[in-house]
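During the second year of the project, the team shifted from modelling isolated chains to modelling whole assemblies. The rationale, set out in the original proposal, was that interfaces cannot be judged from single-chain predictions alone. As a representative example for this report, we include one of the complexes processed in the last quarter. Its constituent sequences, exactly as entered into the pipeline, are reproduced here:
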Amino acid sequence: MKTATIEATTNQYDGLEPLIYELSAAGRIGVNLPEPDVPLSDLPADLLRDDLNLPEVSENEVVRHFVRLSQFNHAIDTGFYPLGSCTMKYNPKINEDAARLTGFAHLHPLTDVEGAQGALALMYQLQEWLAEISGFAGVSLTPAAGAQGEFAGILMIRKYHVDRGDTQRTKILVPDSAHGTNPATVTMAGMQVIELPSDKEGNVDLEALREACAGEKAASIAGMMITVPSTLGLFDRNILPIVQTVHDAGGLMYMDGANMNALMGVVKPGELGFDVMHYNLHKTFSTPHGGGGPGSGVIGVAQRLMDYRPGPIVDIIEEAAGDHDAPLYGWTQPPKTIGRLKAFHGNYGMHVRAYAYIRVYGGTGLNDVTRHAVLNANYLRARLKDHYKLPYPRICGHEFVMEGRFADSDVRALDISKRLMDYGIHPPTNYFPLIVPEALLIEPTETETKQTLDRFVDVMISIAGEARENPDILHDAPHNTPVRRLDEVKAAKQLVLCCAPLMKQVD
Amino acid sequence: MSYIPHTEAERQQMLAAIGVTTIEDLFEAVPATHRFPKLTLPAPMSEMDVMTEMAALADANEHAGDFALFRGAGAYHHFIPSAVNHILLRGEFYTAYTPYQPEVSQGTLQATYEYQSMMCALTGMDAANASHYDGATSLAEAVTVALEAGRGKRKKIILSHAINPQYREVVRTYHQGGDVKVVGDRGQASIPDLIDMLDENTAMLAVSYPNFFGQIDDFNELAEKVHEAGALLVMVVNNPVALGLLKSPGELGADIVVGEGQPLGVPLSFGGPYLGFFAVREKYVRKIAGRIIGETTDIDGKRAFVMTLRPREQDIRRDKATSNICTNQGLMAIATAVYLSLMGKNGLRKVAELNYHKAHYAAQQIQHLDGYSVNMERPFFNEFMVTCPAPVSRVNEALIAQGFIGGYDLSADYPHLKDTMLLCVTEMNSRAEIDALVDVLQEVE
Amino acid sequence: MADLKFPDDVRYAKSDEWVRVEGDIATIGISDYAQDALNDIVYVELPEVGDTFDKDDSFGSVESVKAASDVYAHVGGEVVEINEALEDEPEIINADPYGKGWMVKIKLSGEADLSDLMDAEAYKAYCEDR
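Output from the structure prediction step:
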């Protein structure tokens, strides 16, 4: 009996870890709550629910469950994470402590401005710094993520034209190497995409751009979205003529700032002529990625778009009385604003972390960040160039793209990625940018040591060898991970999106 | 600098391997005219000094650690068990990214799947996504789903004025580029008035539950009428703690349930990061935006989780995608999953009851004060409207001087609600605090 | 490519649909080449009977795990029948794209203009060039 029971227990779950519902037992609770200290009121009987299907688990079991789950993750804190276009740099721990200071964490967003001067001063200062780094006239901290920053930028461009009576400007130029968010943003804003090809150097095809903006077509161009350096990790040599061409057509320039880690103290997008861009604070300024958010997609804008920014914006509403006094900070709404993007005023906890990060580094330090991010990427590129095909063999920015395929092997980029997991390394970004076959987009970031990079090179060279001598070890990879390759077809067909049947069973 | 690990010797070795002499050589593709601008930023600072400066900024705020907080209006000060923060501080969770590679992301994937499951239980829906940015953007995305469900032919969106004003503003921001008509919320239309606006051009009707004023509206016949018109019923949950006590929106006939998840384990944090929950009936699951986690097996037959329904998303569908969202509020969804696991069915009920009893106690005490009246027309949860004998700003000045953060001034968004504050009482407010608040209110001239 | 079928009783579009016109009814589906490129089809979105489409309209979509393709009508008219079996078993398209894997039947609103579409030989050549 006993043995059978133990077997039944160990075989009870067919996964890595039971679902929290599978740990549930009726009447158990994981929290210690007070009894009411006020007289009880009658509950509205006809409005009450009969049942609530939440798990019933002790605090100890909840903690163990989620700690065990966490251990199935690869994270920056556990190992190298060269996921291109995501800038998986070290997240300094001071950021977390700063965001958890009681005066920030327990500050209500609708606190009267007089009672929120510390928080507002921080936001004001961050606005100033981010404007300086990007060379723009001003910023808005409100966008919740890069994608929302893009949306805000395109809505601003749209409204700028509409307000001038230029209502026929509905087309946005987007290179074929762009992040998927770019064309999706254009559609979301009710505008249309014109896709531009890239040339063989990885730059935007300048002739195609000029053609798209030529003659009568110019009057329909609302603007262009472009990533700098590009999603291929390359500085477009024609960036000034590109900006010029679009401006001459009457369009505005949007810069996708996902790759700002390559630009700090190297070039200011505002000075290149861009009209608007978004930052990803969770990339460039080390706020955590959180397993997929929260992000923060602060936007910077040139003078002509200042009045269109999504608010609220922090401004000085009363100058300081004397040298030793502080000014009074408050909220303003730009006069022609596209409107509010979310409730309240952005992901403030991310603003706090980015503030801490910029404060620690200062101006020269941020330039050092960029210099070392670019150094690390070029070092990997140089050391891997004889082992993998580099479609654009030139000096790169903070990341570079390789082809994950070989003439003499049926191994593909996905197999290489899965094999990297066996070595405790997170795979690069796969199959993006779309214009490179079997793309592997590699971004080491500045916080990795030469030793880590050298080991990655050794592993990649060894995998290139395996691809020829023992391809099955790649096809079958990963071998050492908590689970192996998943049946994604089953997931998409069966659509088990919550444990509803199980919940009924638990009843 | 401690976060950049390179030694001078390593830098030289690396430059040699690349085949250049200086790091500056790596930037020659950047136009020389604009290369290496000066950054006018403060000098670097030690970790110690940064923390001192930031602590001073934090201390300069009137926060719920020092003040008795009676303000809600879309952000709520609820108890968060210590375990929630300890799980969030696991570097394995907070320094991971979107689980593109499921073999090394099962932690995030399963935790998010559990979040989805709990949100389904709470809302009475069949499926939930991994979250949106906040309650407001969830509502804006619900509009997109309703427009899709109406095959782009139904263009009218009916919103109740009792939905958080900021949410309604965000809906208008999101849909300014389309030919959508948003109606119903500019006056004081009642639920029957909203029902009268339904027609064959209506894609959805949205109400708030509880509403922005803390009240529970009468939804009798609402779902039936909305569905008769061929439209979708969207419910905006102003504070999901209320669902520990109240009927689920699913039971009331909602097709889409959205709301602000912050009260479920996320601190106020001056307005973000929060999370927007988004749950639907099965019929609409393929039309929703955002990450969705599904169950499957690996090649050894072991249960495992993976992002599914991926072709809806921007990175695959590009200009055909209905939303550009990529990241959600992943870590906040995990916070909510941990919070709801700790609370369980009985804990959340108990928290909801604490809110209900304390709010009603406070309302009764204030109701008896000279010059004050509490709106008792509808049942309410933990917020209620108080009409004051003076402008709300003056009442709040008197309160802050005594260490209380008073209610939200409704007159800015609702001009007809002059001198009316929206007062919020949660389990964090003790009876002594409530009694003291009442005493101060009594003294306001 | 060698194993893919290109029957000559239908006409093909560059966007990989096939159209078979019998009387005033056009039957539409996706080609063997398209199903092979998509791989395992996991979901098919179809219109409702009674919906009308112009020849340039998309009437639905076909999804695999990693891709989605809109499917275009190429003829104008009203949907008179949809292949409901695809709702539960979208993989029928993988198994039999020209037969049991048909998607919709449209009653033509006028004379069908199939001049933009290719015959089997031209389409096969077009696929081989990609």
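The radius of gyration of chain B is 25 Å. Chain B touches chain C at residues 286, 310-312, 316-317, 320 (CB under 8 Å).
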